[in-house]
Design brief:
Elements (H helix, E strand, L loop, with lengths): L1 E6 L20 H21 L4 E6 L16 E4 L19 E7 L22 E2 L2 E2 L2 H11 L4 E7 H11 L4 E10 L2 E4 L2 H18 L6
Helix pairs in contact: 1-4
Length: 213
């Protein structure tokens, strides 16, 4: 079974400020480590659930945040920017049973931590079929257009709420933090978040054959 993982950073447990997600800022290396930990947990869970091939797309900012040597060796990495399908680049190669979204965050206008849709500087709101849509919705639609269901969304509580509203009971979700303001949150310990993601990813992959795009 072939599994795709789209990895963002703002929705990772412990991340609450732009300084943790912007390259060159004081706490960026911390953000990278926290992101890597959750991605590796998703890879491990996917493999436990039956995945034989895993592709990870680095989907945050300049899209070269994940250190290749730190990534679980069972995964292949799509890294770098200016990708045709952006956050779900790689899905077009086909054959994927499911997509897993890790580190996702609330849409622009939501009360989530660092909430935005693609660009906090230029996008006030994005609508799809007349309804406000965040990156969860846009990327799930792109995956669906390619015949791939989304089996897991892990991130902040706003991202999880968007996933459940869009995808229903079929999607596994893990809320690793809950906003207290745009720049503060109540979060799981990173180890607890990773364990929850690993377990949910395993369940998601086992359920993947019964999901619809």
């Amino acid at each position: 079974m072939k599994i795709f993982i789209s990895a963002d950073m703002e929705g990772v447990a412990g991340v609450v400020h732009w300084d943790q997600v912007d390259p060159g800022k004081p706490d960026y290396e911390l953000g990278r480590r926290l992101m890597l930990g959750e991605v590796n947990a998703a890879v491990a869970g996917a493999c436990e659930g039956g995945a034989r091939s895993v592709v990870v797309n680095d989907a945050h900012c300049l899209m070269r945040n994940l250190p290749p040597e730190g990534l679980d060796r069972r995964a292949r990495l799509v890294s770098g920017g200016l990708k045709a399908l952006s956050m779900v680049e790689g899905l077009q190669e086909g054959g994927f049973a499911a997509a897993l979204f890790v580190g996702y965050h609330g849409r622009a206008g939501s009360p989530g931590v660092l909430a935005h849709t693609y660009s906090s500087a230029t996008v006030h709101e994005l609508r799809l079929n007349g309804l406000p849509a965040g990156e969860v919705t846009v990327n799930a639609a792109a995956a669906g257009a390619l015949g791939v269901p989304v089996a897991l969304v892990a991130g902040d509580a706003e991202a999880v709420a968007e996933a459940r509203a869009l995808l229903g009971d079929g999607v596994e979700t893990v809320a690793v933090k809950e906003a207290r303001s745009r720049y503060s949150a109540l979060a799981l310990h990173p180890d607890e978040a990773r364990e929850a993601i690993r377990e949910a990813a395993a369940r998601a992959v086992r359920r993947a054959p019964g999901l619809r795009p």
